[in-house]
Amino acid sequence: MVNNGKPRATRANGVDRRSFLKATGAGSAAVALAGCTETISGGGGGVPDTIKIGAMGPADASFGASILNSAKLAAEEMNADNGIAGADVEVITKDTMDQPSTARTGYQELTTSDNVHGTVGIFGSEQLLALMPEIASAQTPHLTAGAATPKAPEQVAEDYETNKYWFRVGPVNSVFLGESLVQFAEDRFDSMGWETIAVIAEDFEWTTPITDGIKSELEDRVGVEVTEVRRVASGTQDFTPVYDQLEAAEVDGAFTALAHIGVNALVQWAKQQRPFGFGGIHVPTQLPSFYGATEGAAIATFSQTTATPTSEVTEKTVPYAEAYNESFDKYPVYSGYSAYDAMYMFKQAVEATESVNGDDIVSELEGMSYTGTGGQIEFYGQDGEFPHDVKYGPDLSQGVYFQWQADSEGNGVQETIWPDSLATSEYVPAPWNQ
Amino acid sequence: MASVSIATVAANVLLLGALYALVAIGFTLIFGVGGVLNLAHGASITLGAYSAYYAVQFGLGIYVAGLVALVVPGVFNYALYKGLIKPAGDNPVAVLILTLVLSLVVEQVFLAIAGAQPVTIPGFVDGQVAILGGLEANRVLGFVLSWVLIGGLFYFVNRTKRGQAILATSMSKKGSALVGINPDRTYTYTWIIAGVLAGVAGLFLGSFQSLNPLMGRSPLLLSFSIVVLGGLGSIRGSVIGAYFISMLDQLTIFYVSDRLAGLSGLVVLVVVLLVRPKGLFGRELAEG
User: Does A171 sit behind a cis peptide bond, omega within 30 degrees of 0 on the bond before it?
Assistant: First the structure.
């Protein structure tokens, strides 16, 4: 049943009483009927009085909170400015608890009882892959922010009609993350003095495309010696043995692909003052509060990310980060930029088609080129390399690399070190390695 | 892959073994004396680490935080014993379930208030010590402090009246009662000591690695292997067991694969249970 009037979750904005009553449409057969069609086709044609968007992510983790908060922030801004095509915007949040089963239940609630018109977010490739069949059967557009697995577009390629409701706004998928690492290495390793390196990746779904072939890529294109590409088991707590081996191999740097087990890896590297550098893709260090939270252990670590609060990737990046900070008293992480962009892309698609019908929105999104906070966002078409995935490139979504450096007062600052056009500083080795 | 020197492996074995021993001794004491398999032992570790974290957040400094990390798990264990274990009395199943539930509650509480994201606490000392090619000074301190505590415990148990009362109760509850030892008081001491030791372990585990609400789980599992190997209830067995398991683990990690971390302990657990169920020093546990 659509709109049963139960306030199930956060309302992004106080919707006025009349339109709320109209939307809840107590006892109206028409609404019930609309509900049926909505359930079947993921939103009928035309624009209802209230457009509902589900936002999903692990609420306890900053990567999830950034998604949920950014969706709320975007809805708030939209409601202050005529909503979406005149309709009020309501964001309904679901905590995935980083569990595929919880994510699936949450998604089912969103699409069957809340009857949302679209969903954004999801952090963690495992959760996303668990949702793919659900997204297909709900036929409701989903714009991923946070998960990087290329298996999702693979499914769109395999069965386009069934899976076409899926899109990814960011980050770029992990095939491109691997490409980005090699590109960064090409541009920066020489000046960083990294001649011998080891690749350290966590053994999770998203790193597989990165570690496949990265050794030969780095050796051929960058000319560095790669002593090993190590996939570290998911439960690893103690990195001391790993670092002892890296030290024995006399590496200049540990080039990383770490998210879930990244904190231990980083903290132990810093506390043990290892004589090599540390960075690459490291999701926890992207947290704007990470330097303080680790008592400065993050110093000199660097990572790829979608954008930082001070990097002007587009003219929208900094204003968004500041608005987020004003509302939530902290800065967002990468998944937030993408979730925010996803909300606006959804808005643009609804306004262009004047419809919340899933199929209409899908075709509109396919042709869209949107200047978001994370870059110029375009999707691959049905016959592209990664159907419905965000395109990677210097004029599209490329991301930045930043490094934690200390300012004159000893506070940590995320200085952008790549690409050249956005760089605010050069790479600086850790204090104990200078 | 360049090979790591034996000295480096040995250093890791020594440093880790001391911490493992601290965790296992508390676990084995409670079992040896009270006959309780305390599944909430991991929770005491988590509690110790997080109390230190919050103390640091409140600006108390790491030394005060270190003290808090001893007191809070000590008080927690005291309350656990008086509030749950004693009333449940001689029902081992109820006790097992209660301690399991409590450990889950502690995890959930920290998940709710601190979140799943790992956090860190600063070390007591910074920098490196020039032994074996440079070791993290804080780890060395943890090693020294662990051994001071282990030595102190040996002295306490073997040389003081209260300690001997603990030993006597662990050997025979009836016999010790006959010579006028108050079992309740002895149990109380044991629980508090176990809590404090777990707190120290949590404090150092937290400062070497990082803190998360589930950090007590793997030390608890490890304790099982260690005390079964050493003989349930034997302090000496726990120390030797801790070093043996830490050595096996490090050798596996360095020379086989780091992906097998923690596995050797479980293999030992199964082998000992099949081959020598009473463990290496199981005889100290004469009767219940």
Answer: yes
In chain B, how long is the greatest CA-to-CA distance? 63
Q: Give me the residue from B5, B115, B119 closest to A61, CB to CB.
A: B115
Question: Domain-by-domain residue ranges, chain A?
Answer: 17-171+314-378, 175-305+400-433
Residue B230 and residue B243: Cα distance in Å, rounded?
10
What is the per-residue pLDDT for A261? 87
Q: Provide the 8-state DSSP code for A142.
A: E
**What is the number of helices (H) and of strands (E) in chain B?**
12, 2
B183 in A contact zone (CB under 8 Å) = no
**DSSP letter, residue A218:** I
Interface contact flag, B117 A249, Cβ < 8 Å: no
Complex confidence, ipTM: 0.82
Burial call B98-117: b when 16+ CB within 10 Å, e when fewer: bbeebbeebbeebeeebbbb
Mean pLDDT, chain A, integer: 89
Choose among B16, B128, B210: nearest Cβ to A263: B210
Distance CA A176, CA B10 (A): 41
Region A376-391 average pLDDT: 96
Which tens digit of pLDDT belongs to each residue from B245-268?
999 988 888 888 888 888 888 999
Closest of A420, A423, A390, A395 to residue A176, by C-alpha: A390
Q: From A237, which residue of chain B is nearest by alpha-carbon distance?
A: B209
Please state, in angstroms and rounded to a whole number, the distance separating the CA atoms of residues A20 and A33: 18
Does the pLDDT value for residue A15 go beyond 50?
A: no
Indicate if A175-305+400-433 has the same CATH topology as A17-171+314-378: yes
Share of chain A above pLDDT 90, in %: 77
pLDDT tens profile A239-254: 998 999 999 999 999 9
- Give the pLDDT confidence score for residue B283 in this predicted structure: 57
**Spacing of C-alpha A25 from chain mean position:** 36
A17-171+314-378: what CATH class? alpha beta
H or E stretch covering A104 = helix A100-108
Location of structure tokens 């002895």: B186
Interface residue A268 vs chain B (CB under 8 A): yes
Nearest CA in chain B to A246: B2
Interstrand relation of A118-121 and A142-145 (parallel, antiparallel or unpaired)? parallel
Q: How far apart are the C-alpha atoms of B100 and B89, rounded to whole Å?
A: 16
**pLDDT at position A403, please?**
97
pLDDT per residue as tens digits for the range A245-294: 999 999 999 999 998 889 999 999 998 899 999 999 999 999 888 998 88
User: Quick check: B208 and A268 CB within 8 A?
Assistant: yes
The domain B6-284: what is its CATH number?
1.10.3470
Provide the 10 A C-beta neighbour count for residue A30.
8
Q: Residue A4 — very low, low, confident or very high, per pLDDT cuts 50/70/90?
A: very low
**How many Å apart are CA B228 and CA B234, to the nearest integer?**
10
pLDDT tens profile A110-124: 999 999 999 999 988
* Alpha-carbon B245 to chain mean position: 14
Residue A117 token pair:
């018109």
The C-alpha of B251 sits at a distance from chain A's nearest C-alpha, in angstroms, of 10
Q: Which fold has domain A175-305+400-433?
A: Rossmann fold (3.40.50)
Is A291 in contact with A299 (CB distance < 8 Å)?
A: yes
Read off the tokens for A52: 């509902």
